[in-house]
Amino acid sequence: MAAAEENSSLFLIFILTMIALPLVPYTILRLCRAASEKAKTIHCRCSGCHRSGKYRKSIYKRISNFSTCSNLTILLLWIVMIFLVYYIKHVSREVQVFEPFSILGLEAGASESDIKKSYRRLSIQYHPDKNPDPEAHKYFVEYISKAYQALTDPISRENYEKYGHPDGRQGMQMGIALPKFLLNIDGASGGIMLLGIVGFCILLPLMIAVIYLSRSSKYTGNYVMHQTLSTYYYFMKPSLAPSKVMDVFIKAAEYMEMPVRRSDDEPLQKLFVAVRSELNLDLKNIKTEQAKFWKQHPSLVKMELLIQAHLTCESFALTPALLKDYRHMLELAPRLLEELVKIAVLPRNPHGFGWLRPAIGVIELSQNIVQTVPLSARKASGGNSEGIAPFLQLPHFTEATVKKIARKKIRAFQELCDMSVEDRAALLTQVAGLSEEQARDVELVLEMIPSIEVDIKCETEGEEGIQEGDVVTMYAWVSLQRRNGLTAALPHCPNFPFHKEENFWLLLADVASNDVWLSQKVSFMDEATAITAASKTIQETQEALGASAKEIGNAVKEAVDRVKRGSRLVMGKFQAPAEGTHNLTSFCLCDSWIGCDTKTSFKLKVLKRNRAGTRGHVPEEGPAAAAEDGIEEEEEEEEEEYDDYESEYSDDEEDEKNKGKGKVKVVNGSAHQGAESDIDSGSDE
């Protein structure tokens, strides 16, 4: 009986240990992560973002943020642990050591007469003839009688003195950490134990494996369905215009699975009337176009209307059921758009290049969704190639406001940003008709808008020039600055109901051929990760070049300082194309802000590979060398102009006016913002 009770106590200790082993370190990890997320709470402080309630730390909001499934599970497990500790400490009885003198209430070494007197006294109290209580009978037989026998019987006393027990040497007792009822091996208990072993050791791991495999077979690591990626891959085309990206985006499997209710027909009809001007319908055949629109799959119709309702700020008229679908649609949008960008830049052609035009269109759509700006606002108007979209992302700005400030010759968004604070405040209050509080909101948002600079360097590691077929390494430092001094921040997006982090896409592309040579996403939110990545990259590069330990340390220190000042190192590799001079453009595009994208242009010169397999080093002496140097100097002096890529909504006239902008200056093989120049891979500058 005592052994069974001891096994039951061991079972509780076993359960406590199994819960504590994963729970304690996981809780510490969660607390550390929560403490490190302080940088991600930096957000816009304008009145619009404040009213949105996304960042308001009310009691209900705190409770809602805490009441997640994982947090509640952790809390429940800690409650179970505390209860088990209390039960084991206060309820479970400890194993008592057999002490005959203590049981009889005597001091060690008492005389035989005292032993007999104490035994008679306890017999009157616990003997079954005197006390009918079963517990008293049990105590008398197992403790009092054995204690008296151990002190009066010579053999028992000798065993007690030698082995500590009147019955002599005791064998080692082994216990099993299982409940008491499972140790009674009869028919029922044996079946329960068998079911427990089968369920815990076989069925539970099997269920976990099945759930994991079924989910992993349906979703990617970014929680996007594999069917969505297949659909995007099929419908992605190299000539896909930005105005047609919407048609591909809404074909995601997640959107197609959303329910289409009959009760949604009438609200969607009203919504269609409100957003009809944004649907790119042919006004000459409006009836045919409308009929064609409604003949689409109901899910496609619903998703396009909901997105247009968001872009045109018509979501206030949605029914509760549609509003729930609307929020779910926006919650999925950022990661779907990210995957759509990856599909666009996925290597397709024989040279392993992606497509530039659809990639830019997807990022533009992301900007409009985050900032709640209609796609039609990107159309060039009033001599502004960017359209009025950058202005409409500012709080309290409307088309009428843009027309008012245009009278003062402020037609480009950059012109507004370049004004002094005093002049801009006077313009907004006296010309645009905004109040002082509204003008302060505009100023707060302008301080949040990032300014991006890109410094690019392309080289073949360990070699002097770039020959066709070489593996070229691109090093790009992307630097971010804001007027408020912040690096990591959340964008201004009062109408986007979820937290959205800024992401930038660095694309190295050939605009003429629509090819993307390299692409990488850049984030400024996690400085520690950026420092680790930059340090590792610089260290490996310097070690490959045979630098000394001191030189490596100085290079790593310089890279860490640049990261802390708001820069991120981007490195990528690509195979050098055929011999010739290639006009390349690097695009740094933000997926959250409109009008802060950066384009830098440069030329990459690729030499012909030598038949002998050497690097084709140019001799220092001789007429041939002089002739080659003369040819290269002439090529460097030539200045060519070529068009930058503009949005689908820009006019051709504005494209002509903006030729030559966004070039880069090359110093020692590096590309900097400035005038257009070459990357001469054949000679040292």
Describe the structure.
By secondary structure, the chain is α+β, with helices and mostly antiparallel strands. It has five domains: 68 residues; 64 residues, DnaJ domain (Helix Hairpins), CATH 1.10.287.110; 30 residues; 222 residues, Sec63 N-terminal domain-like fold (Orthogonal Bundle), CATH 1.10.3380.10; 156 residues, Immunoglobulin-like, CATH 2.60.40.150. 51% of the residues lie in helices and 11% in strands. The protein has 27 helices and eleven strands. Strands 1-5-4-7-8-11 form a six-stranded mixed sheet. Helix 14 crosses helix 16, helix 17 runs antiparallel to helix 18 and helix 24 packs antiparallel against helix 25. The radius of gyration is 38 Å and the shape is elongated. It starts with a helix and ends in a 6-residue tail after the last strand. The C terminus is likely disordered.
Structural class by sheet pairing and helices: alpha+beta
Helical residues, percent? 40-55%
Strand fraction equals 5-15%
CA gyration radius, whole angstroms: 38 Å
Number of strands: 11
Corresponding CATH architecture of the largest domain: Orthogonal Bundle
Q: Sheet bearing the most strands, described?
A: 6 strands, mixed
Uncertain stretches of 5 or more adjacent residues: 611-685
SS element count, helices: 27
How are the strands of the largest sheet arranged?
1-5-4-7-8-11
Number of domains: 5
Shape assignment: elongated
**CATH superfamily name of the largest domain?**
Sec63 N-terminal domain-like domain
CATH top level of the largest domain is Mainly Alpha
Q: Average pLDDT value?
A: 80
